[in-house]
């Protein structure tokens, strides 16, 4: 999906790591929540409260889920993060992402 229609976008940005990671929240009529954002090069650790999919449309990065080895994305790619877990990122070039949150 390259475009979202009939959504509400929250005006205030989500800003992390001194502005190196930013996103905007997109809310759908069915209750689905996504964030669209940009990550600048750097190393980051995030924690989740619910299951989420990190979907990258551009960028070069490595990611590490708990208990797994480092994996790479160069351009497009996605991965699922279970609820209540941490994951690490090493972002090498500006990364464009969409995060989808699941109510499971």
Automatic annotation (TrEMBL):
The keyword tRNA-binding does not apply. GO terms for cellular component: cytosol. GO terms for molecular function: guanosine phosphorylase activity; purine-nucleoside phosphorylase activity; thymidine phosphorylase activity; uridine phosphorylase activity. The keyword Transferase applies. It catalyses: cytidine + phosphate = cytosine + alpha-D-ribose 1-phosphate; inosine + phosphate = alpha-D-ribose 1-phosphate + hypoxanthine; adenosine + phosphate = alpha-D-ribose 1-phosphate + adenine; uridine + phosphate = alpha-D-ribose 1-phosphate + uracil. Its EC number is 2.4.2.1, 2.4.2.2. Keywords: Glycosyltransferase, Transferase. It is an enzyme of class 2 (transferase). PANTHER family: PYRIMIDINE/PURINE NUCLEOSIDE PHOSPHORYLASE (PTHR36540), PYRIMIDINE_PURINE NUCLEOSIDE PHOSPHORYLASE (PTHR36540:SF1). Belongs to the nucleoside phosphorylase PpnP family. Catalyzes the phosphorolysis of diverse nucleosides, yielding D-ribose 1-phosphate and the respective free bases. Can use uridine, adenosine, guanosine, cytidine, thymidine, inosine and xanthosine as substrates. Also catalyzes the reverse reactions. This is Pyrimidine/purine nucleoside phosphorylase. It comes from Paenibacillus antri.
């Amino acid at each position: 999906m390259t475009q979202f229609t009939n959504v509400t976008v929250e005006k205030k940005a989500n800003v992390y790591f001194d502005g190196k990671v930013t996103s905007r929240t997109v809310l759908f009529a069915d209750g689905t929540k996504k964030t669209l954002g940009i990550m600048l090069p750097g190393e980051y650790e995030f924690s989740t409260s619910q299951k989420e999919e990190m979907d990258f449309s551009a960028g070069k990065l490595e990611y590490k889920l708990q208990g797994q080895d480092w994996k790479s994305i160069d351009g497009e790619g996605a991965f699922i993060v279970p609820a209540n877990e941490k994951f690490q990122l090493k972002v090498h070039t500006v990364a464009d992402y969409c995060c989808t949150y699941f109510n499971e």
